[in-house]
Amino acid sequence: MKIGLIADPHSNLAALEAVLKDIPRVDQLICVGDLVGYAAEPNEVVKLVRAKRMQTVMGNHDYAAVTRDVRSFNPLAAQAALWTAEHLHKENLEYLSNLPTHLELTYGKQRLYVVHGGPRDPLNEYIFSDIPNRVLAELVRDLDADIVMLGHTHVPMERMIFGKLVINPGGVGQPRDRDPRASYAILNLGEEVKANFHRVYYDVKITAEKIETAGLPSELATRLFFGW
Is pLDDT of 191 > 90? Predict the structure, then answer.
């Protein structure tokens, strides 16, 4: 069983298309949320995710686009979220509103727990790669899962704790590890679980120009060139 795992497309169609073109043949595509926000093509990204029949959970930017609740957002993120809410087509807004906050999936003998943030706060919890073992153990030990899939940080992560693999594929649409290339992961499920991380070049200028043309904050375009 082979799974393609992506996170945080954030309305960046060029990055998502590049990743999907690069991903080898897999049995299932999983997205751990934040389809929208920041960039200027929310409808195109949601349409593509739907067309690919991805197993998807809701992210905090998806939730903000649906509810227009941006109280926890910084000014740039809030402006983008409200712009997204105004521009989403009805069917895509409805799709986002019906996304679950987490998924529990089983493939063969492997049990997967899929969430955007973390088990304690599905939408907003940040779990970074340098999280202490003690804290990570507390987060996942009661989950009935062999693999915990996360997003939200936009930074790749692979940790093993209590025999559970905790993995974040990094950001597709807005990487934040100082590498501007889009990020994703491939999981091979079997007697042994193996994760491989991949980076993909895409034409950042295309996305940046669309952000500028849409009237979104220029900082959201600039950061894409630097991966932060």
Answer: no
